[in-house]
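[step 3/7] fold_predict: job queued, chain A
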Amino acid sequence: MRGHRSRVHGGADSQRHPPGEATPPGEATPPQPPAGIRLWQHIGDNVAELRRLDVEPGGEWTCENCAGDGRNLDGQLSSGQKDELHRLVGSPEFQQEVLQRKGRRYNCDGALYSSLFTDQGAITVGDCPGEERLPVTDAILRLLADATPAKIARSVTV
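[step 4/7] structure written:
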């Protein structure tokens, strides 16, 4: 999230229907894309090798230490990846996972820790033995790993 960007509400639907006025029956309200997504990943307590990935609403991404080699990279999600990411992050299931893990602390030696920061809230998961898997969070992490050079990330097992 390059600099601070606030989510812009509005667009064609809000111009046709003022705030507080319901969308007429039969007319779909387009989903609002998330404001942006930030992912921080590190193994164990080694935050010196922190991988930082920022994804803008339009699918542009920037990554610091992206492949664990200290290099910074940038790129663009495909249209399909961007749409899937917006769908996953905006889903009620992801919101439930965020609430379920709120305040959770991990302490696993050598585990991969992934922290996602979204407009739904923040969630941290640890690749700890016996840890309950979160299907939507895992799908988001897999999508981001597939779309970017992510050698630091271990494969997510489901």
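[step 5/7] annotate
The radius of gyration is 17 Å.
The chain has one domain: 34-147.
exit 0
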